[in-house]
Predict the structure.
Amino acid sequence: MSAFNVRPPSGDPAGPLAVPSVTADTQQFRRRLSVAPMMDWTDRHCRFFLRLISRHTLLYTEMVTTAAILRGDQERLLGFHPAEHPLAVQLGGNDPEALAECAKIAEGRGFDEVNLNVGCPSPRVQIGRFGACLMAEPECVADCVRAMCEAVSVPVTVKTRIGIDDRDSYEDLLHFVTTVADAGCGTFIVHARKAWLQGLSPKENRQAPPLRYEVVRRLKSDLPQLEIVLNGGIQTLDEAEQHLSWCDGVMIGRAAYHNPYLLAEADRRLFGQGDLGPRTREEIIEDFLPYVQDELAKGSRLHALTRHILGLYHATPGGKRWRRHISEGASRRDAAETLLLDAANALAAGDFRGDQTRRGSFC
Ligand SMILES: Cc1cc2nc3c(=O)[nH]c(=O)nc-3n(C[C@H](O)[C@H](O)[C@H](O)COP(=O)(O)O)c2cc1C
């Protein structure tokens, strides 16, 4: 028998979550820590799961293009659970009118921030003339930002690189940021490495060009009135705290996805909240279960939900077997949420350590 106390599916989208979100109706959220937009990774299931770990970390959607929003299924592209706040949508595009329209749609759906992608180097995005290649067109980005700011009252922010190709001098970056800031953007998230638009894949562009935090630091020092969020290569909250001595916020991407429990201390350490201490991994699974049940009832596949939680026990005893058990089990035809219960109980009992020491169930 399961040791979990699984709550029945509620049918109410806000119902099953024990942890109330920080509503950003009053725009009082802070960007001290955010999880980066990541295509195919930070979908709504992933964000819901991360929200169970930290209530205050700002979450970003994957990039959604204006063309997709204006022609596609908006509920599929922009739908989210109310618990996900504070939540920013990231848009990809270069047409001021289309971006303004999409920003308005996003604001109407309740997003707390609209972010423009000026950092993606992928060839497909370059063909559409948006993403990182827009760093070469500061005036175009300024027009986009101006139109978006006029269309919505939520903050409009820009995520960018420190440069592209041979447009990588500090003066180029300063010119880009001041031009866009003059159009109404007060917050820049800066991935502290340049992008090579020819010859490097998006993955290589996240690794090969060296990180240059000193460039972002100089930007903050020259433009102290702007909110500058540092992104790139940050692995731990210790590192985040060090950077926060000079920047306004840090954004973590891959480390937060592969090791989501690193966010567990974020509310207390970075937001001054969470006196009760971090939630345990087991509490997080318990709260994820009703969501999983609801989503399965709506037709989602188990694998689509559980693929984001494989790293929950990262670098803990039994963590590798947890990962294997969930990823193999979730792909089976008859996969059900009991897979999670079984894995969590086995882990708590020590079964995944191979030591067979029974330590009892954790709840
Ligand atoms: C799988 C994946 C998908 C990504 N998709 C996006 C995206 O949609 N929009 C964006 O601005 N950046 C995207 N990025 C880049 C991240 O937002 C971030 O800038 C980059 O990973 C550097 O941060 P990190 O070193 O903390 O991971 C993606 C990164 C990864 C790993």
